[in-house]
Amino acid sequence: MFNRRDFLKAAAATGGLGLTGKINALTSRCQDSNGFFGVHPFVEAHPEAVFIMRTNVDIKTNKEAKVATGLEFGRSIFVPKSQEDGGVPLTHTIGIKPNLTSRGSWQSKGYTVEGTMGVITDAYFVEGVIGGLTELGFTGDQIHVRETNTSASEMITGGYTGMSLRTGVTLKVNSAAVGTISAEELTWVDVPDGYWFRKIPYLYPFNAPDSYLISIGKFKTHGMGVTLASKNIQGMICHNYQEFCGGYAKITMSDDHMNPNAFDDIKNSYESHKDSIPRWYMAGTSATTSGLGMETWVHRTLDNHSVSKSGIHIIEGIYGRDGGGFTYGPHPDGNKDDLAMDYMTNIIIFGKNPFYVDNVGHWLAGHEPGNFGLFHIAIERGLSSELNPMRIPVYEWFADGTATLTPLTDFERTPLVTYYMQEEGEDYWHMLDEPYEYSTVTAVKEKNKPEAFILGQNHPNPFNPYTSIQYTLPTSGNARLEIYNSSGQLVDVLVNGYQNAGSHLAVWNTNNHASGVYFYRFRFGGLTETRKMSLLK
After folding, report:
1. Which of 375, 406, 440 is the last residue of a domain?
2. Do 472 and 431 have their domain in common?
3. Same domain, yes or no, for 373 and 511?
4. Backbone dihedral region for residue 3 (phi beyond 0: left; psi -120 to 50: alpha; all else: beta)
5. What CATH number does the domain containing 509 carry?
6. Do both 377 and 518 map to the same domain?
7. pLDDT tens string for the chain (537 positions)?
8. Eight-state DSSP code of residue 430
9. How far, in Å, CA of 355 to CA of 339, rounded?
10. Can you say whether the dihedral through the CA atoms of 248, 284, 438, 430 is positive or negative?
11. Contacts with 102 (C-beta within 8 Å, 6 or more apart), sequence order
12. What is the value of pTM for the model shown?
C-alpha cells in the first residue's frame, strides 16, 4: 500500500500533476443525503437499459477537462437517497475497480507514457467520479482503489498514485498469491453452481459485507473482443485465481476451490456450442485462438459475475484504444508487432447489467455482438436475456441527470480492431462485423406497452434544488412538459419537441426559483395531465 510519504515521492518523481488540491464537497449534496446514497433512481429502475453520455474532451492529455467530466458524471449518477428507497449507508466502504492492467514492456517499443494512456482507465476521470462521491459525504479513507494485474511503478506513470494523493483515497496493488497474501486482505465467496470455481478470493473490500462496488472499465479491444465491463472485474480476484485467460488446461489455484468436474463440464458445454457460436469451431486450447479456450474463459468470467455484487458498471471511453489492449496494435503497417493507437471517442457507457453494457459497447466499437460467445452463454446461464443490441433500450444521458430514449444508431461508431479468434486467411488485426441473424436466438419478450402516456410523480418531493420527472410515451410524437407556480404563471419548459416512444426523464433545476408549491403539466397527443410538487429552500 502507498503511504503518504510514498505519494509525495511519486508526485515529485513525475514532476507534479498540474492540478491544485482535492475536490471540495458541496454542502447541499451532503446535507440532502440523510446518511444514504445510491445510483440515480431512473438508472436503478431500468436495469434492462444502457446509458450513454457524450463527453467533450479535446485531447486525451487535458487533465482538467477529464476531471471535470468525471465530476459531472459522478454528480449525475450518484445521488442522495432515503433508506426506504434502497439507499446505501454512507458508512459503507466503496471499492472502485478501474481497468489497471499491466502495460508490458512499452519502453522497448519506443512508446512514451502518453502513448500508453489508453491501456488503462483514465485516472483523471476516476478522480472526478471520486469527487462526486465525496460531495455526498464519503471520506477518502472509505474509498479503495484495488487491482491485481499491475505494479506500483505503473500506478505512478498511469497517474493513479498522484490521484490517490490528491483525493485521499487508498490505492493498493496486490499481486501476492493465495497463501502469501494475508487473510485480512481477502473476502472468500462461495460459488455453489460454478462451472470452474467453488470459492473465489476477492481483494478486500470487493464483495465484502458493507461494501459497494463501482466498476470503471476502459473502451478498448483485447483478445477476448472489446474489454469493457465483463472482463474488468476479473482483476478484483487474488492472484493467481484471476488468470482466466490461461486457456482450457491451465490450473493456477487450489483443487479444493475448483469444481471437481470443471474440465468435463466445460468440455461438454463447448461440445454443445461449437457448431452454433461463430468461430467456436477453431481447434486447440488457447483462450484467444480456440473455441474451447474461449469457452473456458467465458465460464470463469460468468462464475465471477454470478456472485459479485455491483452497484454500477461504467466504461470510460473519453478515448478508446485499438489492438491487443496493451501496447501492440496495427499501426503503422498492420503487422502483428506494430503499435496500438488511441482515438478520441468521447463517450461514457454505463448500466446495471454488465452484459448489456458490453453488448452495446461492442457495437459502438464497430463489432456485431452476436459474433461473440460471451453473450450467447451469458443468456444460457441467466445473466443476460438479450443478444441483439437493437433490442436493448439505450438512453442518452446528460450531465444534469436527464435521460432520453435514443436509437443506438444515433451514436457514432469507432471501429477498433482486435486479434480475437483469427480465422485462416483473415488479417491478424480485424473486425468481427459480419452480419448476425439474431432471429435464430431466443430473446427477451417485449414489455407491455402503455396505451396512453404515463406521468410519474416527481422525485424527490419536497425537493431542493433538483427534482426528476419520469414519463412514458406509448408512441413517438411531440411532447411538452411545463412548470407553473401557484399563481398559474409559466416559469419553465423542460421538454418541447419530438421524442421516441418509451420512458424518459426530465430534471428541473430550481436555483432561480423561490420556495413554494409548483405544478408540472405534461401534454402529449391532445391529452394533458398535471401534478403538484413542493420546493423547500
Report:
1. 440
2. no
3. no
4. beta
5. 2.60.40.1930
6. no
7. 444 344 334 433 333 333 333 333 333 444 455 789 999 988 998 999 999 999 999 999 999 999 999 999 999 999 998 888 889 999 999 999 999 987 766 666 667 778 889 999 999 999 999 999 999 999 999 999 999 988 888 888 889 999 999 999 999 888 888 989 999 999 999 999 999 999 999 999 999 999 999 999 999 999 999 999 999 999 999 998 999 988 898 787 888 999 999 999 999 999 999 999 999 999 999 988 999 999 999 999 999 999 998 899 999 999 999 999 888 899 999 988 888 999 999 999 999 999 999 999 999 999 999 999 999 999 999 999 999 999 999 999 999 888 988 999 999 999 999 999 999 999 999 999 999 999 877 544 444 455 667 898 888 888 888 888 989 888 888 999 999 999 989 999 999 988 888 888 898 988 889 999 999 999 998 788 899 999 998
8. B
9. 29
10. positive
11. 149, 150, 151, 154
12. 0.84
Residue 500, helix vs strand vs coil: coil
- On whether both 75 and 142 belong to a single domain, the answer is yes
Pair (360, 502) in one structural domain: no
Q: Are residues 487 and 385 in the same domain?
A: no
CB 206 within 8 A of CB 187: yes
Q: Is residue 283 part of a domain?
A: no
385 CB burial (10 A radius; 0-12, 13-18, 19+): middle
Distance CA 319, CA 220 (A): 9
- The answer to the question of residue 330 being in a domain is no
Could you tell me if residue 249 is inside a domain?
Answer: no
Per DSSP, 203 falls in state E
Element (H, E) at 156: helix 152-157
Number of domains in the chain: 2
Beta strand 170-173 pairing with 93-98: unpaired
Locate cell 476479473: which residue?
234
The residues, ordered by sequence, that sit 6+ positions from 475 with a Cβ below 8 Å of its Cβ are 501, 525
Which amino acid, 381?
A: R
Whether the Cβ atoms of residue 81 and residue 35 lie closer than 8 Å to each other: no
- What is the DSSP-derived secondary structure letter of residue 197? B
CA distance 224 to 230: 10
**Of 532, 230, 166, nearest in space to 378 by CA:** 230
Distance CA 253, CA 32 (A): 46
Of the residues 413, 440, 467, the one at which a domain ends = 440
Enclosing domain of residue 489: 454-535
Same domain, 434 and 469: no
In eight-state DSSP terms, residue 216 is E
C-alpha cell at position 243: 488468470
Question: Do strands 454-455 and 466-473 pair parallel, antiparallel, or not at all (unpaired)?
Answer: antiparallel
CB-based contacts of 20: which residues, under 8 Å, 6+ apart? none
Is residue 148, in this structure, part of any structural domain at all?
yes
Based on the number of CB atoms within 10 Å of its own CB, is 302 exposed (0-12), middle (13-18) or buried (19 or more)?
A: buried
Determine phi and psi for 65, rounding to 5 degrees.
Answer: -65, -35
Residue 85 · residue 44 · CB < 8 Å: no
The CA-atom distances, in angstroms, between 408 and each of 119, 363, 500, 511 are 26, 9, 12, 33
Which amino acid belongs to residue 337?
A: D
**462 and 400 belong to one structural domain:** no
